Amino acid sequence: MGSATQTAAAELVCFNDGCRARYAITEVLYNCPKCGGLMEAAYGATQQPESLKKIFRERRLNNTPLDQSGVWRYREMFPFLDDYSKVVTLREGNTPLLDAPIAAKYGGLFSLTFKHQGFNPTGSFKDNGMTCGVAQAVRLGMKRVACVSTGNTSASMAAYAAAGGLEALIFLPHGNISFGKLSQALEYGAKTLQVEANFDQILALVRVLAERLGIYLLNSMNPFRIEGQKSIMFEMLDQLDWRVPDWVVLPGGNLGNVSAFGKGLREAKDAGLIDRLPKLAVIQAEGAAPFYDLWQRGSGGLCPVTNPETLATAIRIGDPVSWPKALHEVRNSGGTVEKVTEQEIADAKAQIGLCGIGCEPASAATLAGIRKLTARGVIDRVENVVAVLTGNVLKDSDYIYRYHTGQLEAPGGVKIQSTFGNKPIVVPNDPDKIAELLN
Ligand code: F0G
Description:
The chain is an alpha/beta fold and 439 residues long. The chain has helices at residues 49-59, 65-68, 101-106, 126-139, 152-164, 179-187, 199-213, 223-229, 231-239, 256-270, 290-297, 323-333, 342-354, 361-375, 397-404, 431-438, and strands at 11-14, 22-24, 39-42, 97-99, 113-116, 144-148, 167-173, 191-195, 216-217, 247-251, 279-285, 336-340, 385-389. Strands 4-5-13-10-11-12 form a six-stranded mixed sheet, sandwiched between helices. Helix 4 packs across helix 8 (223-229), helix 5 (152-164) runs parallel beside helix 6 and helix 10 packs across helix 12 (323-333).
């Protein structure tokens, strides 16, 4: 598939500065055996930036599956495979940049662009990472893959595992994921276990099981998932003709995505593709905001939230595994971390809907966060801002219906105001009455 690419020697390296132990790229490692630190993929020097930009652009005209993928098109930036023939691609990525004037105004900006990852094959940014995670699983000869998920990772893993002929094992917090996501996992044939525990507790459980049963774990501490999610930034920059925005804003849950964006952007700068970094702003939901708390304290480690609560179930995570990477990336970019309430998320989501765009609740935290950050003067109204919408509007339709009909309640029973509500109207089968109503 596709043209042959240069493969700089790839390795796994411990992310912990005091350790930096190195391992073969084919070892199955999620944490460093020496110090317990997170692992990351590292490569040798890549090609000249002008030649890379040309290759990336030309591949858009190519019909090979690898080049049609908005992830693998950028493969020189994550050359961990030595053979691309077994890559499982559903043509992930290829997600648009959309101008959103109504949302810009609501967020206190002159203009705002959404990078909409909800256009992916399974409707979320997880597909960008999953194609790489599954490629590594296949390369290692794994037969079974597993993840714990708030919904989107499981939908994505189920699809890619099915397409690649692997058995998928999914662990979900019982009662706390949307049906849209759960039903995707079922449809794609994954063995789905609903555990009576929260995301953080199940992740600990799954780590034990993966070790005991020899299953390959595809949560975001898997370094190859992170490699794939870097492509969201490469594609954004390519679409902007390599002009760097001032800010990239994204929701934060387990903090894999911000780790991926930071790494991808640093590597793009090191490769000479860009000459400066955008600032990264991570937005958390108030009831699940341990990273925000850490940012406010300014030092020390992350203090997990034992019972995280938010209707934005995708980011209902109290003990995010990737926080050391995320902290490094946000600091290095000169960025910030903000938190937003349930009401703020719900209203921002309705404003994104009014742009004709739509997204799931977690994604709307971005616009709610932007509104706060412009009000506080952290983001200037003239700055170029790209907000990443992480999931499709249809992922959580129940939430939408409840908001618009005034039935949405925050955890704890507090009513969410239907500020921008748009109730369906029941009418009799009578043209006169309907005409009267519409006049
Ligand atoms: N937005 C959506 C729609 C998500 O599904 C997630 C994470 C996030 C944002 C947060 O990204 O974890 O990289 O900080 N969902 C995971 C899952 C945890 O299991 O699907 P993060």
